[in-house]
Write a structure and sequence with these properties.
By secondary structure, the protein is mostly beta strands. The chain has two domains: about 10-95 and about 155-205, Sandwich (Immunoglobulin-like), CATH 2.60.40; about 100-145, no CATH class. About 0% of the residues lie in helices and about 35% in strands. The protein contains one helix and 14 strands; from the N terminus they run ββββββββββαββββ. It has one helix spanning about 150-155; strands spanning about 10, 15, 30-35, 40, 60-65, 75, 80-85, 90-95, 100, 145, 160, 165-175, 185-190, 200-205. The strands form three sheets. Strands 3, 4, 5, 6, 7, 8, 11, 12, 13 and 14 form a ten-stranded antiparallel beta sheet that branches. A hairpin with a 5-residue loop joins β13 and β14. It is globular, with a radius of gyration of 19 Å.
Length: about 210
């Protein structure tokens, strides 16, 4: 067990065990917790997809789930949330529902919407509204690119059943946190495939 792992909160079937996971010594290391026979690692993998400034729209957090037990567990985005010290809760956003407009050009293989304020076709990357970032001069008109991008979809944590001995990893996208939020913890709940009931609950500090 890693030295900076202190506690997790665990609920298995009808039993309950409490614990707390400590923050890692280095921000590049993930926070890891063992919830029964399931290992959950949070962070440690930065977002390097397109758009690079995805954090302006949502908060991407890398999650790894390793099933070391004998029962299959279901991973679903809606079972994750970020919780602030003051009780603020930021729910997970499905990859297909990550919506926004960015202005940095995508890789050459990706299409762009251009400036087309009269349309609202997500599939064609065309959006209704201004093509002007709020951070820049209101007189600026530039090319806009719609989300979700291919990277947002393909790098997401898959919603799937994790069989014994298997693992699943990827990004979970959360409602955007303000800079004033302070430290947050990731609340994770994994479901028993057979009953649909929570099999594991864990609260892990986000690096």
């Amino acid at each position: 067990m890693r030295p900076w792992l202190l506690v997790i909160l665990l609920l298995l079937a009808g039993g309950c065990a409490a614990g707390v996971a400590g923050r890692p010594a280095a921000p590049t290391e993930p926070a890891v917790a063992m919830a029964g026979d399931v290992e959950i690692a949070v962070g440690g993998v930065p977002w390097r997809g397109w758009p690079a400034d995805l954090g302006r729209i949502v908060t991407p957090v890398h999650v790894l789930v390793v099933n070391r037990g004998t029962a299959p567990v279901r991973v679903a985005h809606e079972e994750f949330a970020l919780v602030g010290a003051a009780g603020q809760r930021f729910g997970a956003v499905l990859p297909t529902e990550v919506r926004g407009v960015v202005y940095d050009p995508p890789p050459a293989a990706m299409p762009s919407a251009g400036f087309a304020p009269g349309f609202d076709k997500i599939g064609d990357w065309v959006f209704r509204g201004q093509a002007t970032p709020s951070e820049v001069d209101p007189g600026y008109v530039g090319e806009q690119f719609g989300l979700p991008s291919k990277d947002v979809l393909e790098r997401a944590l898959p919603e799937a059943v994790v069989e014994p001995g298997a693992a699943a990893s990827g990004f979970v996208y959360f409602e955007r946190r303000g800079s004033h939020t302070g430290p947050v913890e990731l609340s994770a709940r994994l479901l028993d495939v057979r009953t649909g009931e929570p099999l594991v609950r864990a609260v892990i500090p986000v690096p």
